[in-house]
């Protein structure tokens, strides 16, 4: 093992919402890991995060961070359109890379990034944190053990409690690349087979403003996998009862499914009915443990030279699926993934 | 088999609320059984029930019914204070007997009835219908199979949705003999061991009128069984959310419990919470199937000369427990069942 | 009200499995209704059912039954390919008609039957019994009350515990017309809007024999409704854990869903996990109450001259949907219902 | 606010199992708090914990820690028989005090400790961490809001997955003072009224060795509160299915209850049944969040000069209840708390 990574120093690029989560995990939650440097184009954001955890090195230029020699790895949490090029530079600088999803919306740019990673021989993990949620891991494990026999049907429920602001929607890449992309990854993660063809339907049911911006807020996607599984994903930007994140897999010997996590497990029975708690509000609450676990796993992969669980290719394929879904919706026909090329 | 009982004719004594349930089951729900005669001191009640099912024989005098030769069995659904003497007469008349609980509040009168039954060699089944509920049967079965190992703890939740009217309370024998008596039977049924000692606490929390009548509306009873199990029963006359009927048994290898039955299994999630249906309102809804099943079982016992599942002794012991509970409450001390003698 | 229908006499055509259910309900479960005659091409089947309930009139010729003057209504439970013509004859004979689903697989024949019904001015109810299940009724009611706001997404899970025998498959019309047809009806019932377009996928995953017979055993259908709702139905011929019958509707103000019914509600916790009961095995157990309720409703409609809840047109449209689904699957493209014409 | 407590320094006395939990929370989980010193009679234990979080000051003598001037507060996690005297000394040293439960088994010693705290005017919080569990907090809140009206019945289920080792049992004070003490506190916390009288039953069902040591492993305690509530607690040292921690409160307008927390929320349906996950194994997993929350609350109380939620008197009363329970069990009679005097 590289002695450099025993007490591993990691740099953080991007100190926004998701950067703060990863920053905290790197700073105080992972034994043997140190958050050593923070870069953000907004110096105050970088400084504020650094101060919170006693980090001494701060910069507005991520290139300065990449050229700091004792950093073994970097976590890229900057704007999506910077991911691909920073990955390339980080790989060239010999840093192991954790990068938030999506790598990019453009397959050519993704491929350049992945080539650079391969050429440099560094690790790249994409931030598909839901793979590290205890519920979905357990489902995958049970399916892998053969507890439900051969899988036949997959169902993913993925509904947000509220839509992002219009300015976010504009640069989001659209619902399939921004929201469904997580579910595309989940589908591949749980079924362990590739999707050959998909068919997407959708509508604007939640907010006309989203429609005016050319996007959808409600979508259903049917997936056909190589191994014969047929899957459905349904998405909404607004589930008033909270973040709805469930999966169900049906197979020849049984079915496995998950329910939503809730802040507690009380039940109140009164004259009106039997009432329970709503699901955890949104991803920060629901997936808190998974963010820590994905970073722990990344650090472990770097330390032991193992392949990350969410690889660069795992980052590319859901983008292909998102582009196929958009095409399917626009042309109202099933689209094969092989139609989507660079 | 007695050819008389092939197409078994049964007489019904008492055409009140519970009599109507048993009457209907005997009339149209049990193949090979015929409700052949109805007796009630109120002729119109008898006639009305008889008309509903095309029953030709009606009387205001149960003795006339008992002396009708082709009746193989009778179902006694008259007022509690008539049970013991009608059982004696029915036994002498050679009729097999189904009798509603309780046999009586007086142990000497119960013993006379049981002696008459024994002397006549007829079957006697007491109407502890809850033994025939699919939930409690399943629990007993699982415990009997050793699925939870040796039982250690028992818990019975038994709460009514609303109290009976004051005029009923007056002649009810008090909460322990009227309401808890079902739970005392359930405790013995599930644990298959006898209670040696019990301790009862209670209060008037629901309706001061019940207190003025010298009764309680809220009670908790602790039971110590011969086999070491410790049980608790809790009762309330008013659960605003409906009829609450649950059991839980904890043992060396696990736990088994039951939830309330509901009219359907929907869940409504909205901004306020996740809402489910209330339990079935009261015993007529909740225990509908068990009333049919207990009568089916009684008829089967008569046909095959088997011992009924809820025997005369099963009718006597819960009365002893009720009397012990009353004494325990009055004297605020644990009372051994052996203290309660004729 | 027609005095003829006060004590309404009903004739039964077809004494097979489903005929026996309706026969029993007509004979003993509905006050004021009498099963007065049974017709079946197999005399012994007719006689056996008749004997069970003391029915005096039996025939092998349904025309004899239709010409019996004092029958107000008939229940048609014969083979599917006889439904349409018997409906026509029954209508001409002035009988009110309950007919099992499907009316026919051929739209022209269906239309002839519906015309005859209209011309005769009799009632026609189609046997979509699931509409009378307490769960789905409750869901429909809650949606109708606006409890979930505007509906956006519908999901129907409909999986059988075991496939029918090959000889049944051969004449079943295929999975979409035999099995999914119930779900097509349920979709319309719950959403109260018509489907404009659907897309069907499927496979042979359960039993290769089903594939050899040209049918599918696994299917997923996506539905687009006029009101913007997007729905999915998933079907399998073999759910090893039992009959899986659930729905979920998501809307602007919430979500409503149902769980499977089980024979009891126990939970067993042991060292391995927390275990609950399987769903009721199949439709005879699961939908027992709904069969009674649909017949009660039919009788009520005849008595009060109301339009049945599952009308002739409700019988026709799911056939159109089944034909569209088959076409969609064969051509692997979304198919509009307007493409399916006589 | 005392500037000393802005960046509050806290010392830890006792680096055993529970000390490590509190140590970690003080060291890295609470913004503005610093674990500044660790004392343990075993230097290696103190050093090891200190090293983990970069704590510089370590000692084998807690008195040295108490005399360190810049420590605003101490957390006492040493052996039970040292609690009372260390509290006294810490109070005299002007330190705010967090102390693990129980304060002591001897009421006179407890009273000396509480007097010292009062005289010094420092804060004392007792480690009844379950008060900070989100489930029980929610229950208390709902009851406080009047959601269930007047409470009538309380039920606490508290079962450990496995008994402690015999050497622990010997010095544990017995099941009522070691295990039930948490439930006694929970009862007071949820009902907000004092217990007047209790009745305890128990047995040795799990492990005869526990019996040989003069202790019980199974217990049921009935509580009568001043406000009329009747409560039951049941305890077992071995629930094979895991840590069973539930409460239920029934009142005039409804019922509130909680289910166990599980590591995930999957359900597996197969031919045998429907299977879910076991409860979290034991208190370290189940109450992880509550340990952090109680320390956060303690720090907040020190900072804002508020009364801790679990005060010294809250530490004393459950000891009285434990002593009363022991007496009740030994004499097999209800015991009033007023009988238990110094």
Give the helix/strand layout:
The structure is a homotetramer of 342-residue chains.
Chain A: E1 8-13, H1 17-29, E2 33-39, H2 43-52, E3 57-59, H3 62-66, E4 73-76, H4 80-92, E5 96-99, H5 107-120, E6 124-126, H6 134-144, E7 151-159, H7 166-170, H8 175-178, H9 180-191, E8 195-203, H10 208-212, E9 218-225, E10 230-236, E11 244-251, E12 254-258, E13 266-270, E14 273-276, H11 283-286, H12 288-304, H13 312-331, E15 335-336
Parallel strand pairs in A: 1-2, 1-4, 2-3, 4-5, 5-6, 7-10
Antiparallel strand pairs in A: 7-11, 8-9, 8-15, 9-10, 11-12, 13-14
Helix pairs in contact in A: 1-12, 4-5, 5-13, 6-9, 9-13
Description:
The structure is a homotetramer. Chain A has a 7-stranded mixed β-sheet with strand order 12-11-7-10-9-8-15. In chain A, α1 crosses α12, α6 packs parallel to α9 (about 180-190) and α9 packs across α13 (about 310-330). The first copy, chain A, is an alpha/beta fold and about 350 residues long. Chain A folds into 2 domains: about 5-120, Rossmann fold; about 130-285 and about 320-340, Dihydrodipicolinate Reductase, domain 2 (2-Layer Sandwich). In chain A, α2 (about 45-50) links the parallel β2 and β3 (about 55-60). Chain A contains 13 helices and 15 strands. Chains in contact: A-B, A-C, A-D, B-C, B-D, C-D. Chains A and C meet through β7, β8, β9 and β10 of A and β7, β8, β9 and β10 of C.
């Amino acid at each position: 093992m590289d002695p450099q990574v025993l007490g591993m120093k990691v740099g953080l690029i991007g100190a926004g919402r998701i950067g703060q989560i990863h920053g905290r995990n790197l700073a105080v939650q992972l034994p043997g890991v140190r958050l050593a440097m923070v870069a953000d184009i907004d110096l105050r954001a970088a400084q504020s995060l650094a101060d919170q955890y006693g980090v001494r090195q701060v910069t507005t230029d991520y290139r300065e961070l990449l050229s700091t020699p004792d950093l073994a790895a970097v976590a890229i949490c900057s704007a999506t359109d910077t991911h691909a090029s920073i990955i390339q530079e980080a790989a060239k600088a010999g840093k192991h890379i954790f990068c938030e999803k999506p790598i990019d919306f453009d397959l050519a740019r993704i491929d350049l990034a992945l080539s650079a990673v391969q050429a440099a021989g560094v690790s790249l993990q994409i931030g598909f944190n839901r793979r590290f949620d205890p519920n979905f891991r357990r489902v995958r494990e049970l399916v892998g053990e053969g507890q439900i026999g051969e899988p036949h049907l997959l169902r993913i429920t993925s509904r947000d409690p509220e839509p992002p602001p219009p300015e976010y929607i504009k640069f989001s890449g659209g619902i399939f690349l921004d929201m469904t992309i997580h579910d595309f990854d989940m589908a591949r993660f749980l079924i362990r087979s590739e999707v050959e063809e998909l068919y997407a339907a959708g509508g604007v049911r939640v907010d006309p403003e989203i429609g005016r911006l050319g996007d959808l807020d409600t979508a259903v996607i049917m997936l056909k996998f190589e191994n014969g599984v047929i899957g459905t994903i349904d998405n909404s930007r607004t589930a008033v009862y909270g973040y709805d994140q469930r999966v169900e897999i049906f197979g020849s010997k049984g079915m496995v499914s998950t329910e939503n996590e809730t802040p507690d497990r009380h039940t109140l029975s009164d004259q009106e009915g039997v009432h329970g708690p709503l699901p955890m509000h949104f991803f920060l609450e629901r997936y808190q443990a998974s963010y820590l676990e994905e970073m722990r796993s990344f650090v472990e992969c770097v330390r032991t030279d193992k392949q990350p669980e969410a690889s660069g290719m795992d980052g590319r394929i859901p983008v292909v699926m998102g582009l196929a879904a958009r095409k399917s919706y626009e042309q109202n026909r099933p689209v094969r993934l092989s139609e989507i090329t660079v």
